[in-house]
Amino acid sequence: MRKLLEFLLFLALVPAFVRSVDPPLNYDVLGLIVFKADVKDPESKLVSWNEDDDNPCNWVGVRCNPRTNRVAELVLDGFSLSGRVGRGLLQLKFIRKLSLSKNNFTGTINPSLAQLDNLRIVDLSDNNFSGPIPNELFQQCSSLRVVSFARNNLSGEIPQSLSSCSTLTAVNFSSNQLSGSLPSGIWSLNGLRWLDLSDNLLEGEIPRGIEGSLPDSMQKLTMCTSLSLRGNSFVGEVPTWIGEIRNLQTLDLSGNRFSGQIPDSLGNLQSLEVLNLSGNGFSGSLPESMIHCKALYALDFSGNSLTGNFPAWIFGLDMQVPMLPENGPSGKIKDHSPSSVQPSFYNLHLLDLSDNAFSGEIPGNIGLLSNVQYLNMSRNSLVGGIPESIGELKTINVLDLSDNLLNGSIPSDIGGTVSLKELILEKNFLAGKIPIQIANCSSLTSLILSRNNLSGPIPVAIANLTNLQTVDLSLNNLTGTLPKQLANLPHLLLFNVSHNHLQGELPAGGIFNTISPSSVSDNPSLCGSIVHRSCPGVLPKPIVLNPNSSSDSPGVLSSSSNLRHKRIILSISALIAIGAAALIALGVIAVTVLNLQFRASTSHSAAALTLSGGDDFSHSPATDANSGKLVMFSGDPDFSAGAHALLNKDCELGRGGFGAVYQTFLRDGRPVAIKKLTVSSLVKSQDDFEREIKKLGKIRHQNLVALEGYYWTPSLQLLIYEFVSGGSLYKHLHEKAGGNSLSWHERFNIILGTAKSLAHLHRMNVIHYNLKSSNVLIDSSGEPKVGDFGLARLLPMLDRYVLSSKIQSALGYMAPEFACRTVKITEKCDVYGFGVLILEVVTGKRPVEYMEDDVVVLCDMVRGALEEGRVEECVDGRLGGNFPAEEAIPVMKLGLVCTSQVPSNRPDMAEVVNILELIRCPSEGQEELG
Ligand SMILES: *[C@@H]1O[C@H](CO)[C@@H](O)[C@H](O)[C@H]1NC(C)=O
Ligand SMILES: *[C@@H]1O[C@H](CO)[C@@H](O)[C@H](O)[C@H]1NC(C)=O
Ligand SMILES: *[C@@H]1O[C@H](CO)[C@@H](O)[C@H](O)[C@H]1NC(C)=O
Ligand SMILES: *[C@@H]1O[C@H](CO)[C@@H](O)[C@H](O)[C@H]1NC(C)=O
Ligand SMILES: *[C@@H]1O[C@H](CO)[C@@H](O)[C@H](O)[C@H]1NC(C)=O
Ligand SMILES: *[C@@H]1O[C@H](CO)[C@@H](O)[C@H](O)[C@H]1NC(C)=O
């Protein structure tokens, strides 16, 4: 095969030799096989091309003239071919149509294509051809009709020879890198119907044709139906003769630097359907002659400097029609009855007049544009009200009147625009209420009314608009409460009501779980955790003080009204400080009481355990039946021998909601951690206690601190845990001084290990209830081990009040449902705590940080940063930028999802583990090697 191809190639390069071969080869087969040899065909589209065939007429993409069996058409559109177009095609002497569109061909366009005398259509669009368009191509063109080189990478000037190729009807050079000016004779191409030169780098003025004899050359162009010079750098005025191209249906001059007046002669273009003059420097007013362009369908004048009164003629107000008497003395334009006036542009679907300097009022009969779908008049200087007839625009999808000087109210007739998807009226002076009829616009996805003077309540009916995605009502004077039903809108992504006068409680659920505080800010009477303002009758969520403490304790929040008043006056940070003081006081009392109790019990049970120190501990009667019960799950009951250090204060490891923890050693030298429960008065009966503890003892997982045993007396309970040497995550994150902070890899590993441990607990139907960074220990190899799990089971009942008071040290980790009596507490409360922990690990910040006069809640901060697109800045600065953003950002997003206000919106821990494993970059292992 390879040999044969090389031979054929050789033949192709020596045509004289080919002619002498006997029997004669089929030149088309030869040419196509040579062509095929040059291209890459990854999808084997050309597999049917076999050089042993007599002719190529049955090959894919090939059509022959049935009389001569010579190739007439080669159409290989979208075959994923790449490589260069070699000389092989030059053998196809009778080809009429060559179409290689939508491939990946590279290289230059071969000038020799001009040798193919019969070629009528060449379509090389959507490839990667580069270099100039060869001048030869059009020099002796005898049959070329259609040329498209659109969407390639061609550069250089448009060849002058183009003007001489008088057979051309369609030229499409759009989306290349062509530069320079238009060839001067281009308007003499009298057969040209489509000329698309858009999105190039062309410049200069539109050539005047042959100066002085304009009409002659122009009349030749009358066949042209489509002229696009979009997206170049043409300058100067649009020549008047453009109005002579009578068949013009599409005129697109957008995105150039044309200036001056829009020529009156456009009014001659009675077939004109699409006129796009946007993004130029046109000035002056719109020519009234355009009222004659009755076929217009899309009209875009946006982004110019057009001035003058609003072009009322667009709506059929022929200035010749005498004003009706009821128009009033001011001469203000009022409605004509629809029967008396035909709209000029009955067909108009798109009208964009935005970003100009039009003044005056919107004509009252705007409703006559009964087929309009897109109407944009934003960023002008329009005054007056929004006409009621707007409700007659039954087909409108987008109505944008923003950034004008409109006043009055939003007419209730807006309810008639039943197809409306986007209503944008921001930055005007609209007053009055938001009409409830807006609920009839059931397709509405965007409602942008910000920066007006709207007052009154937000209509509940808005909650019926289930397609809503964006609602911006900020910077108005809205009052009343936020309808709870808004939380049910399933697609809502943005909801901004900041800077109004709304009051009452923020709804829960839906968008309100993830809303950023800035979206509801500056509504002084709005309350709820997001705005850090407690609602009357609702305890502030992060501060739940012990209900059992004495009532004269300074931090207690009693429900008596004078104290509630006091609470409102006190700043949150003051409250926290008082609360902390009360806690410490309580702790001291509890320890003292326990000590006293214990001393009492030791005196008659002779238990040798002591709380105050090792000195008064002498020998080991722990096996004495009266002294209490010691159980080691591992079957090693000889625990007492090493007990001399037991509960020695010097060995205290830390304190938590359920008690202090001490380090000691078993007789075999193995270290263990002993937790002395300080909740003894709350603990269940011995039987219940032992049953629960045994259950917890069975739970083993490499990321859980193993519970090894327990010690029970009625007044003292000890839990014996595996000892983990590396200290708590809290210490690693918040107390370690110096540059020795956790690396990203270590942090990710901690997050993942913690997630696995919780997933395991939940599989065993155990809720942790008390997840926080001080309960996550790090072992010597950097693996996280979660401790303190399931201890709430030891409490006589799962009372959320007791729970929240026991877990109050875990400020910021507590799921909101703890504060809500009607929501059942499930394992999803651990997911919440885990979400907070994720954010804590990634940012290195505590869940709640107290500033002088401010409380920063970590998840709100990250959520806000995410919305502002700068979430990367939240990552712990101690990492010094040494982290993969493609891991850190999704991990933070996961943390936010886990901290959803509504439990059912949080993923379960098994899902979390899966997600984390997906997030972890596959390249990480390689990085470690390096
Ligand atoms: C062209 O090549 C590029 C990169 O080589 C590829 O992404 C693209 O899909 C190809 N396009 C076609 C039409 O084959
Ligand atoms: C097009 O070709 C140029 C080289 O001529 C190459 O650098 C570029 O990647 C190609 N583009 C595509 C989309 O294949
Ligand atoms: C166009 O060509 C230039 C240089 O040949 C190349 O760098 C660039 O990637 C090409 N552009 C496209 C879109 O292929
Ligand atoms: C020119 O070609 C581009 C790309 O194939 C196409 O989108 C455009 O509609 C064509 N222009 C005309 C006037 O047909
Ligand atoms: C909103 O929907 C509810 C139930 O579908 C219906 O009862 C109510 O009338 C609707 N409100 C408006 C203003 O359409
Ligand atoms: C807002 O509305 C109140 C009455 O509801 C009115 O007193 C006040 O002047 C309004 N403020 C503005 C800025 O319009």
UniProtKB/TrEMBL annotation:
One of its GO terms (molecular function) is ATP binding. GO terms for cellular component: plasma membrane. It holds the Pfam family LRRNT_2. SUPFAM superfamilies: L domain-like, Protein kinase-like (PK-like). It is found in: Cell membrane. It is a single-pass type I membrane protein. ATP binds at K676. It comes from the Eukaryota. Residues 647-919 form the Protein kinase domain. Residues 1-20 form the signal peptide. PROSITE patterns: LRR (PS51450), PROTEIN_KINASE_ATP (PS00107), PROTEIN_KINASE_DOM (PS50011). InterPro entries: At_inactive_RLKs, Kinase-like_dom_sf, Leu-rich_rpt, Leu-rich_rpt_typical-subtyp, LRR_dom_sf, LRR_N_plant-typ, Prot_kinase_dom, Protein_kinase_ATP_BS. This is Protein kinase domain-containing protein.
